[in-house]
Automatic annotation (TrEMBL):
Protein name in the entry: Leucine-rich repeat-containing protein 40
InterPro entries in the record: Leu-rich_rpt, Leu-rich_rpt_typical-subtyp, LRR_dom_sf, LRR_domain-containing
Keywords for this protein: Leucine-rich repeat, Repeat
Single GO cellular component term: cytoplasm
Originating species: Hondaea fermentalgiana
Lineage of producing organism: Eukaryota, Sar, Stramenopiles, Bigyra, Labyrinthulomycetes
SMART domains given in the database record: LRR_BAC, LRR_TYP
Positions in coiled-coil regions: none
């Protein structure tokens, strides 16, 4: 549920009893001329009024530009911004100056790449870019050492065909959501994510998973969703992820490694033509 303040923006900024730690400006596109925040939130008077700002929601305002947003770097307590459900194709250069941000929700816009400005936000813990048109990571975001604190990365329902090797450097990552892309293979570096507890890869075009010897490195994994791909075989080493819950429904599997079902807490292989247990050699 998106929280919304029913007062006009002017009223919110002038209310002397409001500390304005949480400023929820969802679904009020009429108050943002030309789909821009510059004249509304980025003037010195407005920024001064939001000196205590922690959480800002700009959800669902038909925004096409975040020009001037660097003014909010003066809001030193700012931790979270929601710019979901707008019409953004890029972030303004000034967004890179919001280095205190720990959470960014940018779902349901029109980004075609993971924006380069995000590479500067080294305090990010949650990054959500679901439901865009993302085909790639900007070059700046492929640098190793980017986002050392990131715990959740959601890129579901985009147009990704591959992942950069830097994905393996996100050592704090616990949740990775890549459902509904066009991934055909995975970088071996993915196995380096030893804090990862949930990995969603359903509804892609994967023909293989990770090489068997690398699979046990995902030692913290509790949920692995691979349903709706094109897998014809799976590594026996998945059994070493016990007690992980694994969904392999609606693939092209003909066999599953013997003992896999007994090792995992839950194994779903529904929707295969014929599945037989494969005896170890």
């Amino acid at each position: 549920m998106i929280e919304q303040d029913t007062r006009k923006i002017k009223e919110i900024l002038q209310d002397e009893e409001d500390e304005r730690r949480d400023v929820f400006l969802a679904r009020r596109s009429a108050e943002f001329p030309m789909g821009s925040i510059r004249s509304v939130l980025c003037r010195a008077q407005s920024v001064d009024a939001m000196a205590n700002l922690v959480n800002l929601s700009l959800y669902g305002n038909n925004l096409v530009s975040l020009g001037g947003i660097e003014a909010l770097k003066r809001c030193e307590s700012l931790r979270s911004i929601d710019i979901g459900n707008n019409k953004l194709t890029s972030l303004s250069e000034g967004f890179a100056e919001l280095t205190s941000l720990e959470e960014l929700v940018a779902d349901d816009n029109a980004f075609v790449e993971v924006p380069s400005e995000l590479a500067s936000l080294r305090n990010l813990e949650v990054l959500r870019l679901s439901g865009n048109r993302i085909e790639r990571f900007a070059e700046a975001c492929e640098a190793h050492g980017c986002w050392p604190k990131l715990r959740e990365l959601s890129l579901d329902n985009n147009e990704l065909t591959a992942l950069p090797s830097m994905i393996g450097t996100l050592g704090a990552l616990e949740t990775l959501v890549l459902r509904g892309n066009k991934l055909q293979s995975l970088p071996e570096e993915l196995a380096s994510l030893q804090s990862l507890t949930s990995l969603s890869l359903s509804s892609n075009q994967l023909k293989t998973f990770l090489p068997g010897p690398l699979v046990p490195q995902l030692k913290a994994l509790e949920v692995l969703l691979l349903n709706g791909n094109e897998l014809s075989e799976i590594p026996a080493e998945l059994a070493e992820l016990a007690p992980c819950r694994v969904n392999l429904a609606n693939n092209r599997l003909e066999t599953i490694p013997q003992g896999l079902k007994e090792s995992l807490s839950d194994l779903n292989v529904f929707g295969q033509k014929k599945v037989k247990s494969k005896t170890k050699n």
